């Protein structure tokens, strides 16, 4: 009997026995380990020993923080705008400069200048600190193999554990106040710099290094004058990613210590369900992100490409800007309007936006309710609690009898037999396992079945290494008592990832074929990805009401973007000669897309899937704000209850799921590639 | 009343009463850190307290701190005071802190909060027995949706605020499912969405809250009871809803010794529901800056607070 069928038999036995032995579904509490308590004890021991050092750091950062804040506050807006526009012109040309100018005028026009400058102060301070820390650690990991082995898994954990899970220890160690927000954003931002530093230093071509050695450079000269300049592009990519990460923490930082910054504005608007104000402020964050992204990315590309002849030399440019700033300063002392934006130039369209969303709710709710109900009855609830509990007169319109069960079994078995006849025994067992899954639901599926299936699949795709990773991750979830909540996360996360990937890739394919659509979607994608996800929650709740479906929609809005981007990029990168060859063979446009371009773009689509998983699972924590009950919710409960262990266990559980999904994805891609190569 | 109050000389009190009181020698010069929570009501209470303490020549800093993590900091003496702490959604740190003396309760702020289940008036047509909770047994269907069928759907407080609605539903054997609300914003959005589309909704809510000044909402009523409601002893026919919260003024253990006059002020400081609701409305609905609203209240209520700031 093939291994797959053995698995099916095991699953059936477990399901049948689970009625009699409830521990098959609910992992016995007696076997759980007190991991959360251990975390709490470790933290308090650590805290007791190191508290004064951490408090010192936080005191040292307090005055630079308030200095930067005050400096930005006191500088006339006209000077700040001029400075940014000049930098933008330098980094990305006249078009980008115009975009920056318009964005900053928007910030002024809706009256959020002060808040925006306070958030900018946070970024201005946290980015250089993150870069220094990140570069230092990156260098250590580059110089010593042992440090590298330690660094990589730590970076994985730092980047996959939701930021909310480590807010509490930061608060306990560093105290309360704006500085903790700064530190949280540093902790979140520096890993990107570490990775890029390692990558950049390692990838310096050896012939350049040899040339340096032959020129008689010492070790130190070789590093600073040969290696660093050659790695400059990668290092600047690191700066870019660090900046974006720091900015994305602005909101989370204000949960624990913000006052009067833009994250705080979004949060208070969100608390009042004031959609208009929250979206106006959310757009400010998105614009800020786009500006800083293109500024840093622009300077990175300049480092790579040769300077064009047209460019004004840097010194002349700097002198010109300095002169402009002086003039502005002089003017703003004469004209108050140039120093502080006058209150009567501020417009607040938030009320009309609110009325708009209410009209939309009234208009669309009946249709949306029908969609939601259908989705819940036929897809979400079967996956969550199983067909055996869902099917009934109120949902499917009939009372299930024995014949319905027999029909279901017959359908599954005949589909599996058909697959067996075709010689696809893996597909056959997969069909039967899915049938069992939908019958009992993820929350009713005995855990030994889940463990067995994951381990078997892991062995098939990635050998013993993947089995070890899976065993570790699943063991963590079981032994910490997180299994039930984790299954809820898997249910919501997997549906969201599948839908985001499908929708995102489909739209991406469309965008690769249609230039207008592509251009239309670019700002939409940028906004979706950079606007704080909190902002989306309010309109989605108003349209779909609190619950799993709303959480699903909110996750999709955020996680479709990487799938879209990778699909579009992948299809556009397909070799033009191949397409021409296919065209000359007389294929139609659709045939070229399906049979030529898509197969060639599969590696890119897969990268998109990896990213979708990371984004989707990351969003689960935020989706908890619309009333889920999975691990994401546990993270909040831990934070609120001051229970570090509880929050950390839930956060690590989510990281375990994300890493597992990611490893399986990558293993499957390798598997797929070798199969292609071997025909 | 303690000895220090009795020793307070008439002249000294008169000077302090004008708002120009100087901290006595025993007073610490350290900055008093007052916690600023996420909701407008608490921010008003905290800012009024801060402004009045400044009038008493204290250095005061307002520190943003999450409503629940703040107790960790207060127990350690990093935050010093919060004039508005609701004791209905608190955690072990709070209870243990009060028991061990790491936190000190300086009395009731005077707000009379109310927790309960609310519904929009149009629900009375769909479920004619309302406002009595007994009506909910008969119109489960009207409140049901795809996620809760065949049970009715009740929006409860977010999971991190505790599970009181879930427990009450279980105790009353009410055919409802209490769905955690996720966050205050999501709950308000849910309410706004439901009311815009005139859809059924029953939700756990609290007063004072600005939403009551913006829309018409009714409370589900319980069986008559004699004063105190013990949530663990309820059943159908003997339901009293929720034990009503107290709003306390909490300070850190060292506060009364370090800043004795500030502690005396905190003991006397009170606000009423009406007062706070009006201020909340001005900030949240009229979009006036909170500092301005606070300054205005201080200008208009000198009679009231000059009694509190007198040492």
From TrEMBL, chain A:
Record has Transport as a keyword: yes
Source species taxonomy: Bacteria, Pseudomonadati, Pseudomonadota, Alphaproteobacteria, Hyphomicrobiales
Record's subcellular location: Cell membrane
Keyword terms of this UniProt record: Cell membrane, Membrane, Transmembrane, Transmembrane helix, Transport
Transmembrane segments: 94-113, 120-143, 163-190, 235-255, 275-292, 312-331, 401-421, 430-457, 463-483, 490-511, 531-561, 607-627, 647-665
Protein's recorded name: Glycine betaine/proline transport system permease protein
UniProt keyword Isomerase, yes or no: no
GO molecular-function term, one example from the UniProt record: amine transmembrane transporter activity
Signal peptide as annotated in the record: none
TrEMBL record, chain B:
Name the UniProt record assigns to this protein: Glycine betaine/proline transport system substrate-binding protein
Signal sequence region: 1-25
Transmembrane region(s): none
Gene3D superfamilies: Glycine betaine-binding periplasmic protein, domain 2 (3.40.190.100), Periplasmic binding protein-like II (3.40.190.10)
Species of origin: Hoeflea marina
ABC-type glycine betaine transport system substrate-binding domain boundaries: 30-300
The entry's keywords: Signal
Entry-linked Pfam families: OpuAC (PF04069)
InterPro entries: ABC_Gly_betaine_transp_sub-bd
The keyword rRNA-binding is assigned to this record: no
């Amino acid at each position: 009997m093939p291994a797959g069928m053995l698995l099916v038999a095991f699953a059936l036995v477990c399901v049948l026995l689970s009625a009699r032995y409830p521990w098959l579904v609910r992992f016995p509490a007696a076997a759980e380990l007190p991991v959360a308590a251990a975390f709490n004890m470790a933290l308090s021991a650590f805290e007791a020993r190191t508290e004064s050092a951490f408090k010192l750091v936080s005191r040292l950062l307090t005055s630079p923080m308030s200095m930067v804040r005050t400096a930005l506050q006191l500088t006339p807006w006209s000077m700040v705008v001029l400075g940014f526009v000049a930098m933008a012109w330098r980094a990305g040309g006249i078009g980008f400069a115009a975009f920056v100018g318009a964005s900053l005028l928007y910030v002024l026009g809706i009256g959020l200048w002060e808040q925006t400058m306070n958030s900018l102060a946070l970024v201005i301070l946290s980015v250089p600190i993150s870069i220094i820390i990140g570069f230092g650690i990156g260098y250590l990991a580059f110089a010593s193999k042992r440090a590298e082995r330690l660094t990589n898994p730590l970076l994985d954990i730092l980047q996959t554990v939701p930021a909310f899970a480590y807010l509490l220890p930061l608060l306990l160690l560093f105290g309360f106040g704006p500085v903790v927000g700064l530190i949280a954003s540093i902790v979140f931002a520096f890993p990107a710099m570490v990775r890029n530093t390692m990558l950049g230093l390692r990838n310096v071509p050896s012939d350049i290094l040899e040339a340096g050695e032959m020129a008689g450079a010492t070790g130190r000269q070789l590093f600073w004058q040969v290696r660093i300049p050659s790695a400059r592009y990668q290092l600047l990519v690191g700066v870019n990613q660090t900046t974006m990460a720091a900015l994305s923490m602005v909101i989370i930082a204000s949960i624990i210590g913000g006052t009067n910054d833009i994250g705080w504005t979004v949060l208070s608007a969100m608390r009042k369900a004031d959609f208009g104000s929250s979206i106006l402020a959310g757009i400010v964050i998105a614009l800020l992100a786009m500006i800083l992204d293109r500024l840093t990315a622009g300077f990175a590309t300049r480092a790579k490409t040769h300077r064009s002849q047209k460019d004004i030399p840097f010194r002349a440019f700097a002198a010109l800007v300095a002169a402009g700033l002086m003039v502005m300063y002089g003017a703003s002392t004469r004209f108050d309007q140039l120093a502080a934006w006058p209150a009567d130039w501020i417009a607040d369209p938030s009320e009309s936006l609110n009325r708009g969303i209410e009209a939309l709710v009234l208009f669309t709710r009946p249709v949306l309710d029908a969609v939601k109900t259908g989705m819940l009855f036929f897809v979400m609830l079967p996956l969550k609690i199983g067909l055996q509990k869902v099917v009934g007169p109120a949902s499917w319109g009939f009372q299930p009898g024995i014949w319905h069960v027999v029909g279901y079994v017959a359908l599954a078995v005949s589909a599996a037999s058909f697959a067996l006849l075709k010689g696809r025994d893996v597909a056959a067992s997969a069909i039967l396992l899915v049938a069992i899954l939908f019958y009992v639901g993820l929350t009713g599926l005995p855990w030994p079945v889940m463990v067995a299936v994951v381990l078997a699949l892991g062995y098939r795709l990635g050998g013993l290494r993947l089995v070890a990773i899976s065993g570790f991750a699943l063991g963590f979830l079981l032994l910490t008592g997180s299994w039930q909540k984790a299954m809820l996360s898997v249910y919501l996360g997997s549906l969201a990832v599948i839908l985001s990937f499908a929708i995102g890739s489909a739209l991406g394919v469309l965008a690769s074929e249609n230039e207008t659509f592509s251009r239309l979607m670019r700002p939409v994608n940028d906004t979706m990805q950079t606007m704080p996800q909190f902002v989306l929650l309010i309109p989605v709740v108003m349209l779909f009401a609190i619950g799993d479906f709303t959480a699903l929609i909110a996750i999709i809005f955020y996680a479709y973007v990487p799938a879209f981007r990778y699909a579009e990029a992948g299809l556009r990168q397909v070799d033009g000669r191949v397409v021409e060859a296919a065209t000359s063979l007389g294929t139609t446009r659709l045939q070229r897309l399906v049979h030529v371009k898509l197969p060639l773009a599969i590696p890119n689509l897969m990268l998109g899937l990896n990213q979708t998983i990371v984004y989707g699972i990351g969003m689960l924590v935020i989706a908890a704000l619309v009333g889920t009950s999975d691990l994401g919710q546990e993270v909040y409960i831990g934070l609120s209850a001051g229970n570090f262990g509880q929050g950390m266990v839930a956060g690590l559980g989510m990281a375990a799921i994300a890493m597992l999904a990611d490893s399986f994805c990558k293993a499957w891609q390798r598997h797929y590639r070798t199969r292609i190569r071997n025909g | 009343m303690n000895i220090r109050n009795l020793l307070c000389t008439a002249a000294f009190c008169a000077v302090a009463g004008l708002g120009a009181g100087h901290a006595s020698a025993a007073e610490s010069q350290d900055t008093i850190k007052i916690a600023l929570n996420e909701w407008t009501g608490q921010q008003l209470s905290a800012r009024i307290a801060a402004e009045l303490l400044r009038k008493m020549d204290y250095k005061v800093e307002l520190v943003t701190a999450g409503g629940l993590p703040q107790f960790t900091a207060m127990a350690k003496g990093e935050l010093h005071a919060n004039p508005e702490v609701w004791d209905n959604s608190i955690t072990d740190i709070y209870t243990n802190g009060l028991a061990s003396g790491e936190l000190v309760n300086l009395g009731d702020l005077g707000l009379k909060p109310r927790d309960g289940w609310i519904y929009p008036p149009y629900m009375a047509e769909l479920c004619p027995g309302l406002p009595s909770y007994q009506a909910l047994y008969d119109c489960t269907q009207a409140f049901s949706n795809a996620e809760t069928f065949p049970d009715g759907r009740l929006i409860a407080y977010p999971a991190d605020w505790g599970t009181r609605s879930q427990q009450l539903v279980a105790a009353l054997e009410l055919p409802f499912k209490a769905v955690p609300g996720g966050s205050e914003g999501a709950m308000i959005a849910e309410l706004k969405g439901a009311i815009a589309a005139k859809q059924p909704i029953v939700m756990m809510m609290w007063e004072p809250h600005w939403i009551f000044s913006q829309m018409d909402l009714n409370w589900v009523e319980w069986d008559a009871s004699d004063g105190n409601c013990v949530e663990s002893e309820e059943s159908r026919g003997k339901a009293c809803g929720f034990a009503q919260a107290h709003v306390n003024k909490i300070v850190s253990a060292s506060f009364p010794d370090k800043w004795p006059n500030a502690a005396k002020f905190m003991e006397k400081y009170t606000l009423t529901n009406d007062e706070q609701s009006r201020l909340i409305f001005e900030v949240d609905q009229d979009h006036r800056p909170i500092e301005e609203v606070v300054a205005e209240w201080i200008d208009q209520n000198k009679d009231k607070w000059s009694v509190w700031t007198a040492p």
